[in-house]
Amino acid sequence: MNTIYRTAEKLRDPQYRKAFVASQINFGIPFQVRALLKRRGQTQEWLAAKAGMLQPRISGLMTPGKTRPNIETLRRLAEAFDCGLVIRFVSFSELARWSACFDPEDFDVPEFEKDLGFIERKMPEVATTSTPVVAGASVETERYPYRCGAVPTAKGRLVILPIPQQAAEAYGTIAYEEPA
Amino acid sequence: MSEWRTPIRCYVSPAGNNKIADWHYGLSAREKADADVFLDTMRKTREWTMPDYRSRLRAGEGLGELRWPSEKKQHRLIGFFLGSYWYAVLGCTHKQRVYTPHDALETAKKHKRQIERGEVNTVEYDL
Hints:
heterodimer, A: about 180 residues, mainly alpha, 434 Repressor (Amino-terminal Domain), 2 domains, three-stranded antiparallel β-sheet, 3 strands, about 45% helix, B: about 130 residues, alpha+beta, seven-stranded mixed β-sheet
């Protein structure tokens, strides 16, 4: 059975719901810290020095159930990894989706200097030859499930431009409408 | 992820009972949630290492154990690698070198031999 549907069934139990949130924190944080450290190619000692903590504390933070980090500790870790930290309330479906999609081997949050989310929004050269009416806009991927290509519209066609995946995740899809 | 990097299969007794499902069923809600989150993460992980996995149990005849804390107890899922699967043969708890149930390791060894000889079935872990 699909993991999300399996989790959805279990979440019908209020006790399980309550426990699931705690489990995501208790296991999710250590696995995220491990993954970030691995992707950075760094050691616990490096993280300890960057976060102003002792190495055994870092070791504890990377071991499920060993410690219960408070928000200030998480903020210091985010600062050490040079990335952001989001603490927010979400629906159970979003939490279940995050849990199912979290990949401990590919989980990578880039540091600021490598963050493609801030690349300058520029229309590719090809777009300047037409009239861009939807430049830098987000296109609903359900309606237009394309990374690039052209979709017929009433006025002509919507050209969806190829852009790097990470930029697409940050901006949606960049497209312009070409008159018929 | 569509495929698990380390898929887990469960021991099914000669009477047809999925013993891992039985173990999971007996956990409290909190223990279930912890086991689910931990085991799903481990299935997405290619290499299992300490502290999450002890690969060679003393006198374990090739058995290893997945290890995680829950409800102030150390939980264990004992099993072994065969081909591209990890076969879970028994769930238990562990405290100061003592397993509960106390005969967990002996039972796990028996289950392992049954799987290796093809005497019992296994099913995909889908709990």
